[in-house]
Amino acid sequence: MNDDAPNIICNELTKYYGSTRGIEGLNLEVGHGEIFGFLGPNGAGKTTTIRMLMGMLKPTKGSAHVLGMDAWREATSIKMNVGHIPGDVRLYENMHVHDLLDYIDDFRPGPDRLRNELVERLDLDVDKKVKSLSRGNRQKAAIILAMMFDPEILILDEPTLGLDPLMQQEFYTILGEFRDRGHTVFLSSHILTEVERSCDRIGIVKDGRLVDVRAIEDFRQNKIRHMDVVFSEHVETGEFKRLPQVVSAKRLDSHMRITVKGDIDSLIKQISVHKVEDLTFTQPSLEDFFLSFYGQSGDKNES
Amino acid sequence: MDSRETKMNLNILRRSIADRRLSILVYAIGVAAYAVLILAIWPSLRENVSTLNQLWESYPEGIRKAFGGENFTFATFDGFLSVEYFNQMWVIVMTAFSISIATGAIALEIERGTMELLLAQPVSRRALLLTRHFFFELGLLFLIGATLIPIAIGSPLVSGDINYMGLLALAVPAFLFFTAIGSFTFFFSVLFNSRGTAIFVSLGIIIISYALDILAKINDTISNVHFLSIFFYWDPYRYLHNLSFAWGDIIVLIAITLISTAAAVYRFERRDIAV
């Protein structure tokens, strides 16, 4: 494989389940040393795409290549260097965790370079039986199974499901180290903050179609946020509406809700002119996000 | 083609043995214990052979053909073994084992979602299926041994007039017969996402096949389709008593195994894996 070639290439990748659409006409490239977030609501086609990349599903049309190999026809060879966390983690219930790690480790030659380190960092008790693990600990086990052999590519479907915030943070740190070693991560999520804090680029999928791909910086600059401010004095909304980044400003009971898109510096300066009792940011929902970027239908031209 | 595509996977074989060793041991103890039970009751029954044979002769010819076969007699230990074990309980236990292993190999993994974990590793679907099939065959050999060895050791102790060549002549078609049953069950295991459905269809075919075997022996009008039943190719009295098996039967059983396994591999390599 050419070293400069993208690690993941989807070319008109399409999957239909009978007459039901999974994903349609997906064209995408993910390069070396990149964490790519695949963002979209439930049912958008994220898991279908990931299953085709993993050779679980045969494309109806088009192709997917991973590490230069066809994801369906050369699935076995690809998996020597690919780690995977499925969206719905299912493990062998009657095995001890350490036996499960041994079993999966034995599929690949060489030492499991990161196993002990990951077990320690994710604080997983490997002497327990799988069936006694909590949802979060099952997810930790799945993370270790996918990453312990330090694969060139990680393909992860909603990888932080069930993890507490501390473990999520540790997981993102591990992902960052992974990227810093030049490896590639393809990560699906329906949680905006998850992709924002961990990804270099994001692809936005809606109703089975990729509607946009953009760098995370560009994403941040155009992200919509709600700011709820309680002033000590009466303040008119008009002075905020005049600011170019402010989308709207409304008075709601005791506080003012200001919706801002992109840079918040000028807004913060304007707020600080007044005496402020309280200020909170609300993270936008995925629906807010689609509304701000593409209009309700997901069509960029409508915004 | 990469060697990982076709070679059996020792890791999966070791795991399969570790996972199923207890249940295989239970099956083995069961078939061995039943063999010992049959041996134990033979001395008392032998003293009443003439009564048993009179009772047997009083049955309608169709029933005698269905459950005994041509020239069958209770007067011999092999005849007694054939009717009381190898045509009844043993067939049920070995069929249950075959269906259990074959449906557990693929359909159960798909149903439980663990197939996704397994196929995320560098093992081909073909290698996975063939390894599980090989494990099933190893299990069959173990159970056949667990059945025949106690009979071989115990029959002289109870004055059972068994011929060791007869036991060998039974072992070969027995292995092939249950391998054939397991092989078409593997096909249904690959075809369905649910183990229950795979069991239902496989067991349904076996029951229909058994019914056809019985009816074809009783009713001459359907005897010309008797060959459609897999039990047409299973005749333990002949193996034990005549010390031989029909090569035609052997070829049919091997053909069922090869065709079913090839169809299972073909389908498994092309199907979507979705939880």
Give the low-confidence spans of chain A. 297-303
- What name does CATH use for the topology of the largest domain in chain A? Rossmann fold
| Largest sheet, spatial ordering of strands of chain A | 6-7-8-3-9-10
- Helix count, DSSP H or I runs of 4 or more residues of chain A: 11
What is the count of β-strands of chain B? Answer: 0
Structural class label of chain A = alpha/beta
The chain pair with the largest interface is: A-B, 27 and 24 residues
Question: What would a concise description of this structure say?
Answer:
By secondary structure, chain A is an alpha/beta fold. Chain A has eleven helices and 14 strands.
Describe this structure as you would to a colleague.
The complex is a heterodimer of chains A (303) and B (275). With 303 residues, chain A is α/β, with parallel strands linked by helices. Chain A is built from 11 helices and 14 strands. Helix content of chain A is 30%, strand content 30%. In chain A, α4 packs antiparallel against α5. Chain B has one domain. In chain B, 76% of the residues lie in helices and 0% in strands. Chain B has helices at 3-6, 10-46, 49-58, 61-67, 77-86, 89-105, 107-112, 114-119, 125-154, 164-191, 195-218, 236-242, 247-270. The A-B interface holds A 51, 54-58, 75-77, 79-80, 82-84, 86, 88, 90-92, 94, 103-104, 106-108, 145-146 and B 2, 4-5, 9, 11, 15, 19, 112-114, 116-117, 119-124, 127, 270, 272-275.
